[in-house]
């Protein structure tokens, strides 16, 4: 009995699932509640600001659409990276990982530019009105998630470059991917609910 | 890293031999972490208790000036916060840590180092919160921290900052533990242990962990918004800017009500283990108990606003939350019926563990009944903010959770230490606590109904509240005496207590199949599970003439030597420290936040890569 | 901790069969999904510029389109379509609770303004 367990991957449980993957899904479920609370706050305060610039005085829909497209594209490169890694195609796995991180960084830079414009051009800060408070907090936490994801992806890429990551470690890339796609779907929700719906 | 490599082969035996402070600091063994949780939480429990005693001493007589109004505010705030986050939750966590792997037939939790990390973050958070006393800035906004009282404008000092950041740190610890336990329960069960064969304690633990990971994000957000308001000038709770102060209350109670079940369900799980053992009968309608637990967890997310009937949400919201609250009483009542039916016709042994479980059933039922009264908005309006509510939630949280947890202590103590607690002292502890508890809290129902408000630091003599307050205070000191008896019991039996052996109670579940205390690797050979009461089936069959199921084949010394256990690690405590440095920096300097953030990131990488394919290097 | 050979075997064959249950998405599928996502996003943005579109229609179609995108990413990119029921329920359950809480908050704050334009 004991032998059967000694030579077993300690990450694989008796259901045959990988502990890390199950854990990541629960984390994402929990993060749904996190963003749910933030989105709920934003929507509860929508249209209740006393004065100051409102959403449609400041939003730059073309820029945000580009951000949305960039993030969607990064989801594609992410799955391609995983697929390449699983086929032991380390060269392309590295390229796709790097591409994902760069697209993510692009998204973050877009957001920095967007925030800077709102502050400097439209005079919308965290403490201008309820919209400013709830908008920056919600999208800022999403941006922080993206930033964390970029750091994670770069770390994986660096491991791959150093020859410390290969097809055996595909789960490490897979769970990073799950996180990354989750950040993408949160943006799908934010893009529609906050930016597009009047 | 080199030292770790040395631990790799046969890590099990190495760590078993290890003693000393360093071995505890670096431990990743779920049993040791469970003990750390238990000891730490018990110390916090004593601190919360002392805070309560000071409050009771202050309230014993009218127009008392033992403590100032400000100190009283700090006392009830820290008493509530401590008991909820630093005593009951981590005492439950002690049992989760120790018992979940044992009851599901696993060698450890799914992520042993993450488990250690949870503990160290919890400890940091607890110390951080209580360090506020040293700086003369103890939190004074109530454990619920209602805005706008807690915004910078009305609470300018650092007291609320301590509370807010402390809770944030503790929340991280709870959520990490939650992810870990869910994966453990779902993924690490012994072969044959289907979901419906899991012991009821495991089921209740699973429900609790889901509540933790889904409810804590709501308070995390509420606290983040408060933090931003206090530090960065956002307007989430600024009424002057059109903000709705109820936002905090909603977010807080979206967390706060599931939190109530986080506090009570572990005790329900313990009682569901203790009763069958000492009645020598399977739990009556165990699947129904399990489904009821799931229902309670699920409904727990839809009743939060019953804490807010008095804020005027309007008839529709009041009705919806009132009906949902009454509904949630149904699965709870079902469980009580099941526990009583388990006793019916059983061969009952009145041990201390069973007495505490019986106390749980009786006291929790009384707390539940006053809870159903609050479910009706018109009744609730009479009772809100009076001592009636204080009486109610102490009946469920003390009469429920604490009695259940002590039942767990008496039941599992021999498993954890190898020695039984003294039964005579145990029964003295029980009766003292039972009498003291009812003396303390039953009169508070009456005090509430005659109009004594919560949270007042003193009252006038002509209100005639003095007599029952004095009774209540005497009761509180009797509780303290009973706790003292427990501590004496612990120290008395530590060396001289009766040696327990693997199965002192003729119990039913897997943890009793292995030595007490268990070896580092728990199970020499992983058992195959045939039913919910696996050990009972192995010993006595199913009680309907079925033959006993086979015991697992004994493991040879060679098998045992080949068991790999995760080696110790110091990264969990370092990561926890770095995180605390980062968050406490908000009180001191933003440079510290940045520094702490970088340290945290560094520790995270070291943590993540500590065992990155170590086998490659070893070969 | 893992035996390297066991892990290697796992990575190349075992892992898939175990964790992906029924089927498996190919690179072709991924690219097709990405194209559909891009098209829907384009339509979403374009909808905003339709002159005189009734608000209810605008909001309704935007919500439906983003829901489709959401499901596509979760189902294909995150493999949930192919994954174990356990993981599906771990994600979808909390998702519905979160949506429920958003709706409840909006109702409680009389902010149910997804529909009428202020």
Q: Could you give a quick summary of the protein structure above?
A:
The complex is a heterotrimer of chains A (about 200), B (about 625) and C (about 120). Chain A is about 75% helix and about 0% strand.
In words, what does this structure look like?
Chain A has helices at 2-6, 19-44, 55-58, 61-86, 90-120, 130-161, 170-196. Chain A is an all-alpha fold and 198 residues long. The longest helix of chain A is centred in the C-terminal third of the chain and has 32 residues, at 130-161. Chain B is mostly helical. Helix content of chain B is 67%, strand content 0%. In chain B, helix 5 runs antiparallel to helix 6 (112-131) and helix 14 (387-417) packs antiparallel against helix 15 (423-449). Chain C is mainly α. In chain C, helix 2 (27-48) runs antiparallel to helix 3. Classes of the chains: A mainly alpha (198), B mainly alpha (619), C mainly alpha (118). The interface between A and B is large, with 45 and 56 residues.
